[in-house]
Structures are given as structure tokens and as C-alpha cells.
Design a protein that fits this description.
- The complex is a heterodimer of chains A (228) and B (322).
- Chain A contains 5 helices and 13 strands.
- By secondary structure, chain A is an alpha+beta fold.
- Chain A folds into 2 domains: 6-80, Gyrase A, domain 2 (2-Layer Sandwich); 92-227, Cyclophilin-like (Cyclophilin, Beta Barrel).
- In chain A, strand 1 and strand 2 form a beta hairpin.
- Chain B is built from 4 helices and 18 strands.
- Chain B has helices spanning 44-53, 204-210, 281-284, 300-320, and strands at residues 11-16, 22-24, 62-66, 71-74, 78-91, 94-96, 102-104, 109-125, 159-161, 186-193, 213-215, 223-227, 242-243, 248-250, 258-260, 267-268, 272-276, 292-297.
- Chain B is α+β, with helices and mostly antiparallel strands and 322 residues long.
- In chain B, strands 1, 2, 3, 4, 5, 6, 7, 8 and 9 form a 9-stranded antiparallel sheet that branches. In chain B, strands 10-17-14-15-12-11-18 form a 7-stranded mixed barrel.
- The radius of gyration of chain B is 20 Å and the shape is globular.
- Classes of the chains: A alpha+beta (228), B alpha+beta (322).
Amino acid sequence: MSTAFRIVPAGDSVLVVEFEERIDPVVNAKTIACAEAIQTAAIAGVRDVVPTYRSVAVYFDPLRTDTDALLERIARDAEAAVPAARAEQAPIRIPVCYGGDFGPDLAHVASFANLAEDDVIRLHSAATYRVFMLGFVPGFAYLGLVDQRIAMPRHATPRVRVPQGSVGIAGVQTGIYPAETPGGWQLIGRTPVKPFDASRAEPFLMKAGDAVQFYAIDRAAYDREMAT
Amino acid sequence: MTAHLTPSGPGVVVVKPGMLTTVQDSGRWGLQARGVPVGGPMDGVSHRLANALVRNPPAAAGLEITLLGPELEFDDERVVAVAGAQFDLLLDGRTVPSNAPFIVSAGARLRFGARRVGARAYVAISGGIAVPPTLGSRATHLISAMGGVAGRALAAGDVLPLGEPTDVYGSVSMPQAAVVRLPDRHARVRVLPGPQTEFFSTDALDILQSSPYVIGANSDRMGFRLEGPPLTHTRGADIISDATPLGVLQVPASGQPILLMADRQTAGGYPKIATVITADMAVAGQLGPGDTIAFAVCTMREAIAALIAQERALMAVEARHA
């Protein structure tokens, strides 16, 4: 099966493979498959392979890489990229304490959607999300697609400090802040789970291509989880 | 809070921290797919030169000093070299040269005096700085509070553990010519168009080259916010987020470009008009707020030739000190 893509340089040390220009689970699955093929090839001189929504950036050392061979290899992997069959993979389940102090924007999203707060929670926790990519800060996963009814755009002016573990919505994306950072997403709850912990044997909870589900917990369960 | 990382063993005591002194090695590679920024030195060439002068491996952890230098006390005899920005260097009150290794005896103090040219100096110490690595690197990333000493800039009273020197040092050589030509508050760097030149008006690359940009006050290790001729988008200022390599010029809706530096995020959603060539990123790293930077489009052939010339100069120094 042939695939639409192009390869463009970003400077002298990066080649970018671009697939169709849209946020789409199928395009993203192809992107991840392409990145995995390039990574697995362990090409001499390649320093990092970075899949995003619809493109793969290949970082390499131009003095230690056969650039023509690299280009050819990337083109072949892009051409052959088909979404991996991951449908059977069990979703990562993440508890969220919705609303209250933890979700200062929940009422906001509810009025945006013309729904009750409970309906927003129900819609947010009913979907199985795809990890399209990671970025922003270590371990921050861009999850989608959020139900159109609650897909509220981010704040015009970002908050200076968003607490660690905050769960937010930005359009059709949702995600968890792994650390306290500035941020503009609509905050609807907080999870006791850490998406990133450098001291853990596996520092990252998620990788691109994973499936994720949220489920509601109450404040007591949140506090118990935080205490352990 | 100060960090005493080694209750015993050789170390360096930070007497005065300077303005922004951080532990840096060659960066945290291989985890950008998990959102982990690469980091590392702003001027990687001078960092590597300093390591060569003390016979450290090229990636060894040293200190990056910004604008105003520290005062350090050594509790072990070591070979030390300082490369990059030119500072007056005083070892127990005696002047020592830049770009040359010198022996520091146990108890000696190295003080950074007036800065002459350049923004960032690199201190390499034989054996390297041996703070515990995080995700495979000792590089300090301030935003994610990772690496170095508790993920932050050095503070007075910190004690930096030192690694075992690879061998007993032999002769102390004459100063080397610096590999990076230090910019005096202005630099001209070469760029390659792309990866998203088609998001801009056809004259945007000409406008980019038409006059220098001022590096804004909000600039830091993540990026230089540039002030100068605005660039015009033709397809909006948003793209589907993709990777943001070192040296890329991303352009938000304001039309004022941001040059992405060492601590850049792994991905972003602004179109990118051009990318500074790898060989010129060290010079860019020697600039600071208020300085100016001019851009000139070059060819891939020129970019690679410049990188080869730089690599040869570094390898010559490494060979002389091997």
C-alpha cells in the first residue's frame, strides 16, 4: 500500500517525514509505525527519532551519517508504514477526581456544552483516547479525540501555575499536567497518578500510540491514593 | 537549600554562584519522543574544547557560566580549563589564561572577574562533575527541574562531586586558539530555509535577511525572542504541532521570530521559516539579551563544509591533548 508523504530537511541535522496534514488516528498510527521502523533500524549516526501528530523528525549527526542512505531508508519506511494492529491492547486506566478545587473550569465547560457537570464527567470518562504524541514537558501526552460537545478551546490567557496532576481539555485534546507549569487548558479534575517520575523504574506512564481511559474517583479515594 | 551531594570524596565548593551557572553535559538525547528536552550547552563547541583541554571525554559534565561568573573552591588537585566567553580569571589572585589547561591545587580558589567578550564560558575539570545523572544525563534543565544540582542553577554552598580523572596529567600546554570566534554583541549566522517556508509570504526570507534582529529581554536558554522586521504568514500562524529542532526559527502570530536554543521544548505549533546551521549555533549561544543577530541563507553544501571545518579544529585540539 502506497502512502502520501514528503520528506523535508529542518536544517542540516534533521529530516522530517510528513504524512497527511490532519489530526487523525489513522494518520497518527502510520506516523508511529514509521518512527518505530526507523528506530528499529538503528542507523549509524541517528541520535533521536521523534514522532508527533503527523510527522517524524529524525535527528542525526551529519558527519557520522550516510545522509543519502538515511534519506532512502526513511523514504522506504514511510512508504511501507501501515498502522500497527494495536486494537487489542488494553487501555491504561487513569483515576480522576473531577470538579471542586481540582477542576476549577468544570462549571465553565458544562455551560459551554450546555450540559450538567456530571454529563461533562460522563463524556470525558466514557471515551477511549489515543496518545497522539508527547511534548510540552517530559511525560505530557496529547490525548484525543475529546467528544465535540465538551471540546472547549483553551483559555485566552494561560494560568501562570497549573498544579501537577491537573486534567485539562483544549479543543479535542485532553491531557494531564505531569508537573506544575504554566498552562491554558480547561481544568476539570486532578489525578493522583504521575504521568512522569524520573525516579521510577519506568519513568513514563504513556507512549505515543497507547490507549487511555479515565474513570471518576471521589476525594477520599484521591487522598488515599496520594498517601500511598 | 544547598546540596551536599558528597559527604566524602573530592569536590568543588561553590563560594559564589554567579548569575546563572549550571551543570551541563552534551544533553539528554533519545527521549524527545517522551517530551524530554535535549538541553546541554548553549555553545557546545566551547564546552567540548574545554573538555579536550583537560582530557575529559567530549560529553563530560562541566559548568556553563552566564554573563557573571562564580567563585569556586577546589578540595582536590585537578586540571581545569575555561573556554568560550573571555573572562578575567584569577586563581588564588594570580591570572590564568582561557583556552588552556592549568593545575588547581587542593584548597585553591578560582574567581571569575570582568567579562571581556561573549556571553557564556565553560569550565571543565579533569574527571568531570559527577552529580547523579537523570535519564542518562547530568545536564541541568531548569524548566523541568532535572539534572545538575536539584535541577536548578548553582547556589552558594553547593558542593559538586568530581569524577575520577582518566589519567595523571602530563604537561600543561600553551593556550589554544578558540574554535568559536566570539561575537562582540553581534553575530551573523547562516540559515537553511525550512521546514515550513511555504507558510510565509514569498518575500519572507528576504525580509529575514534584510536587517539584524535584537535579542529581546525575555530570552533564555529555551529560546531567543527576536525583535526586528516582522515576517508575514500566508496560511495562519498555527500548524499541527511537530518537532522543534535546535536552531529553528519559529514564528508566532506577531511575526517576530523565536530562535530555539538548547533547552527548547521537543514540539511546538508555530510555523518554522528557517533553521540556523549546526556550525553557527555555538556563535549564537555566545549572544545574550540586547545583542543583535543577522541571518543569511546558505546552501546545504556550505553548512556541511562549515561543520567539517569546525570538527577538524576540535579534533586537532583533542589529538594534541590525547
